[in-house]
Amino acid sequence: MPYRAPTAEFEFLLTHVVGFDRVTATERHAEATPETVRALLGEAGRICEEVIAPLNRAGDLQPSRLENGVVRTPPGYAEGYRAMAEAGMTAISADPEHGGLGLPQTVATCVNDMAGAACLALQMNPLMTQGQIEALEHHGSDDLKALYLPKLTSGEWCGTMNLTEPQAGSDVGALTTKAEPAGDGTYRITGQKIYISWGDNDFTGNVVHLVLARLPDAPRGTKGISLFLVPKLIPDAAGNPGVANALKVVSLEHKLGLHGSPTCVMQYEGATGWLVGAENDGMAAMFTMMNNARLGVAVHGVSVADAATQAAVAYAAGRRQGRPLIEGGTGTILDHADVRRMLMEMKAETFAARAMALDLAVSIDLGHAGDAAQAARAAVLTPIAKAYGTETGIKVANMGIQVHGGMGFIEETGVAQYLRDVRVSAIYEGTNGIQAMDLAGRKMSDGGAAIGALVDAVEAEALDAGGDLGAEVAAMAAALRAATGDMLGRELNDRFGGAVPYMMGFARVMGALYHLRAARAGSARAALARFYITRLLPEAHGLFAQARQGAADLYDLSPDDLAA
Amino acid sequence: MPYRAPTAEFEFLLTHVVGFDRVTATERHAEATPETVRALLGEAGRICEEVIAPLNRAGDLQPSRLENGVVRTPPGYAEGYRAMAEAGMTAISADPEHGGLGLPQTVATCVNDMAGAACLALQMNPLMTQGQIEALEHHGSDDLKALYLPKLTSGEWCGTMNLTEPQAGSDVGALTTKAEPAGDGTYRITGQKIYISWGDNDFTGNVVHLVLARLPDAPRGTKGISLFLVPKLIPDAAGNPGVANALKVVSLEHKLGLHGSPTCVMQYEGATGWLVGAENDGMAAMFTMMNNARLGVAVHGVSVADAATQAAVAYAAGRRQGRPLIEGGTGTILDHADVRRMLMEMKAETFAARAMALDLAVSIDLGHAGDAAQAARAAVLTPIAKAYGTETGIKVANMGIQVHGGMGFIEETGVAQYLRDVRVSAIYEGTNGIQAMDLAGRKMSDGGAAIGALVDAVEAEALDAGGDLGAEVAAMAAALRAATGDMLGRELNDRFGGAVPYMMGFARVMGALYHLRAARAGSARAALARFYITRLLPEAHGLFAQARQGAADLYDLSPDDLAA
């Protein structure tokens, strides 16, 4: 089934659910009028439907490959990328000073949502560039900005993030890539990086790597990490791609999904790099990239959930039954109560996960405009949105396979690819376990103030909404407050034992709030809200029950017991 | 990591959890002494570890393929199949009269568990044969039995099930394959069947198809379906494979997983078939095959869950961290509370799903030995075990990927294959939605007597076990009783709206019971039981809450609303 861009859904969410008017009310984003946003999303949607979506299965069947050290991308990817870049889709929120559209992150989030649904493997490329642009805008020197940002913003060049090493994944502090001062203001970067998405391609004029490495005598752990910009081709005096840098793609990974996206093992052999930010302060810049990327990856989940839901609804509506199942039915498997249940769950989850991503984007935009409370709110929502968005993508893609029955297991149908592609989203940019540790650790380091403010606001709004659904949401917000209090009373590792269920229960409460807001808009919205609040929200009881178990019981089995 | 056969776990479960001694106390199975069973499982385990498991990834990389109308299987499959057949692993429970070992279904279930964990794609083959043997034993004429059973039992020939047609999947009654009497006691079978697992191979002397088809003027729907035996090669007077029958493999499917198992589109073009059972009574024979296959597919989930858990524990225990995470820790990611949580959940779920499969097998064996109450208990447990086993396989394989982090997304690691392979188990032999309809429909047609007896027994045993865990299980059994009562009070389609959550909540209660039994055996078992009962059992509250919603709200969205 052809992908349809959900532009009306975005308009509904921006207007009725996430209060996007607060963003356009700021001086910074006054130009993002409804007409401008509508026109931009309409055009981006058209490109995604017509140009990008047709590349999705082709890229799965003809993966990116390494030929004599050079990455060859799937047929059509170059043209697809160019279409996105020309429409400004690769840098919606980049600074106009360097050619960006300067639009809110919220708008970029809508565009990324559509591009990811159309072809997630290709969309990984601009997502990495967007994180790099933001990192350079915040931490780069004026020279680096002047040289790199215009070309990254235009899409002429693209960017990557180089964090992981074989022995240093979630444990970033264990990385050993070296950076030695060359004496001329540059550095020589030496080491191996793995899992580098889009580490090379055959359609941009240059590839700009941001690489975490250690200076000589740097402190151990994360306090001794610096960030370097390492271009594939070193720009000449005119800023054009010049001589090749001392780096190469060693190999590509064979992955469960995202076959079109080349996941590279990169070798740096004394490559020339430029420091970004202060020495030993690389983690700050990394978190700038990471937070951007975490929202972007949350959206990956939403994208795939939407595409999977569209496909499942279309399949069910066309799959005829030999005999009528219910009176006045459609004569298709849509008449099956359980098929309905699955489709409504897919729609209800997709709606909630998308609303959360956009809610987070709005808080980021307001934070950028100077609202510290919104910035703190965004910090709390980031791990929740990343985990909930990606778990939703996986769950909904999996359910979409189920709706298709035997056809779901056949690759030609295309819905198995959704599950394969989206699976890694729960792992990269910080596994969802790491997100939970961030929420229960760093994001509670204010004594629970930011979380408390968020929960209070949910409860007050739910009580204000009233009715049986409002009462359910308010009651679960109170249960979330209790679970938060329980967390705050525990040692850190004890919190971590229940952090994932706590986070997923938190997501349920937020999801219910978004549905409650949507329910005011009409009967179909209200029916979906009732489904979510009566059927899915109660899961949070079980999740909070698990969160209250802490960590002690998790160490009752010895490693030998686990292996037995 | 090499697969290790869980022979000690089987012995524990048979002895302490599922009461296998009740089976060996019957006259029918008196010969299945602990020593016999131990020796057989030991030898089967050795073959699975040494011969079958090494074929798993090879079969994924080099799928079965169709060459000039003939299926070519992956390298090593022929030898692997032969090793299984020679050890009697393909027909553990078949009647000794035709060369079978005549051992209980419970023992066959243990063997299938190991074979499926070692190489699920290959194990699909004997599983289909086992169902065919059982169907022929119950419904075949003496002539058919005498001719086919010895060769099927020895593994010289193998069997398939031909149910599905393009327009008739879950809706079996819609099938249109024709069977016309030839006048000589045989029939001419004409039609197309799809999704035929192991529809052909290059390592057995014949392939025997059981095909559902319609006689001329048969009643519509499922009441007009008959079952036919249709061999690939028609046996000559001496019973040896003779001339080719008028059937062919048209194509193989390209699937998400199980690449080694050829999933065939079969074309019957006036093929010669023999009636199995009475005319228009094919559904009865089909259910004999199906019930066997449903237990077998439940075990597929258990198999993969076990293999995925073994791999994840081994990976975590070997994945070192740069710095110690907890005092007295291992220095590996095993120290992470959330990694522990995932591993314990994987182990706790695998244990419960395996216990349920074996509990079902024991009830089947006791039912075969003449105990009607146990047969009724088996009928209730079958859909629950099929759904819980397969959902556990999918969930645990998915969690295993997460434990591996980025490595989990790389195909070389082998754990992504587990998820790909097991995904279809929730679909074939009746989707899990169909299982739920069976439980809430047919299996409640006695007014809830069989379910009530099962729930009463769980509650009584939990109360008898006592302690906080016993009390929790008893309380949830009471909640299950209430949910059952609620179901019984509803119209059929209204039950179906909550049937899947009801079934999964039912599974949680049964799983808790098995853990409660195991907890008496020692501290590691007790720790795992506590984990399951305090962390996972509470999910049932949310599931029963959803079950109570019925179906009415599921039709509040129009097909257009769903597509919007």
Task: Record keyword descriptors for this entry.
564 residues, alpha+beta, homodimer, two-stranded antiparallel ribbon, 20 helices, seven-stranded mixed sheet
Gist?
Two copies of one chain form a homodimer. Chain A is α+β, with helices and mostly antiparallel strands. Chain A is 55% helix and 12% strand.
Helix content of chain A: 40-55%
Beta strand % of chain A? 5-15%
**Taking Cα atoms only, what radius of gyration of chain A do you get, to the nearest Å?**
23 Å
Number of strands of chain A: 11
Count the helices of chain A. How many? 20
Low-confidence stretches of chain A: none
The main β sheet of chain A shows up as:
7 strands, mixed
Distance between the termini of chain A: 47 Å
- By oligomeric state, this entry counts as homodimer
Shape of chain A: globular
Largest interface, chains and sizes: A-B, 98 and 98 residues
Q: Could you tell me the mean pLDDT of chain A?
A: 96
Would you tell me the structural class of the helices and strands of chain A?
A: alpha+beta
Topology diagram in text:
Two copies of one chain form a homodimer.
Chain A: H1 7-17, H2 21-24, H3 34-52, H4 55-61, E1 65-67, E2 70-72, H5 77-86, H6 105-118, H7 120-139, H8 142-154, E3 157-162, E4 178-181, E5 187-197, E6 206-213, E7 226-231, E8 233-235, E9 241-244, E10 247-252, E11 263-276, H9 282-318, H10 337-368, H11 372-403, H12 415-422, H13 432-440, H14 449-465, H15 467-488, H16 492-496, H17 499-519, H18 523-536, H19 539-547, H20 559-563
Parallel strand pairs in A: 3-6
Antiparallel strand pairs in A: 1-2, 4-5, 5-11, 6-7, 7-11, 8-9, 10-11
Helix pairs in contact in A: 3-5, 3-6, 6-7, 6-9, 6-10, 7-8, 7-9, 9-10, 9-11, 9-12, 10-11, 10-17, 10-18, 11-12, 11-13, 11-14, 11-17, 13-17, 14-15, 14-17, 15-17, 15-19, 17-18, 17-19
Keywords (chains A, B): FAD, Flavoprotein, Oxidoreductase
Domain Acyl-CoA dehydrogenase/oxidase N-terminal (chains A, B): 37-156
Domain Acyl-CoA oxidase/dehydrogenase middle (chains A, B): 161-269
